[in-house]
Every structure is written in structure tokens, then in C-alpha cells.
Amino acid sequence: MTHAETVKSAFPPMHMQPGVEPASDHLESPDCLDQTLDRLRTIDLSPFQGSKSQLLYVKMLLAHSPSLEKFTIQADGSLNSDKRFDIAKDLMRFPRASAKAEMIYLDPKTTCKNV
Predict the structure, then answer these.
(1) DSSP designation for 35
(2) Cα separation of 51 and 35, whole Å?
(3) C-alpha dihedral sign at 53, 56, 62, 64
(4) Best CA proximity match to 36, nearest among 13, 65, 79
(5) For the chain, what is the mean pLDDT?
(6) Which end of the chain has the smaller Cβ count within 10 Å, N or C?
(7) Buried residues in 17-39 as b, exposed as e (16+ CB within 10 A)
(8) What's the CA gap between 14 and 18, in Å, rounded?
(9) pLDDT tens digits for 105-115?
């Protein structure tokens, strides 16, 4: 990923994600990613359901992206407001390699054009 500056990722619904547990196990391992993502500036993820593997993926991206400027996550519309708030709190606690990384957690009804 040395040439990418933006990552856009769409997550399929959890019931359509085979192998979620093996992915979580891999993302939890210390050697999951043995390089930094120096050129990564922006990330857009949607729809975000807050699964263990999704949270670990975000944590890994934040920890390995020293040039990150903007990380936008749009919550899945099926989540209630309490669950979305809990996910937002978890996301904001993750350490970041970039001191200037802005985290934006969007309500499902918000369009990215409004940000």
C-alpha cells in the first residue's frame, strides 16, 4: 500500500462475512502489519457495525498511519443510538500514529458530502 493515499472500504453485513473470527485473530497478532502506511492520508469506512474485526481493523490502521489526516466512519443504519455512541467512544480511545488525524464518526443519515 505504498502508493495509496486514500482508502475507501465498504463492509458487507456481518451475517455475510465468512471467517470473521480468523480475521480477528490475525488483526490481534502483534505482527499483523510489519510496515507503516506512510502515504495513507484519508480513510472512509461504511457501513460500520462495530464488530470486533472492524474495530481491530480501525485500530491497526490508526496505529500504522503516521501521515493520516482524516478518518471518516459512517455508522450502519441498523444500529440504535446507544450502540453508535458506545462504538464512537471505543474508536476515540484508540492510539494514533498521527497526531493530526481527525476522526469523524457519521450518523447513518449523514452523507459524506455534508462533512
Answers:
(1) S
(2) 24
(3) negative
(4) 65
(5) 79
(6) C
(7) eeeeeebbeebeeeeeeeeebee
(8) 8
(9) 998 877 655 55
Residue spans of alpha helices (H) in the chain: 20-28, 52-63, 81-93
Residue appearing with cell numbers 455508522: 75
pLDDT per residue as tens digits for the range 48-88:
999 988 999 899 899 999 999 999 999 999 999 999 999 99
If you search the block for the grid coordinates 463492509, which residue do you land on?
11
Which pLDDT score is estimated for 30? 55
36 close to 66: Cβ distance less than 8 angstroms: yes
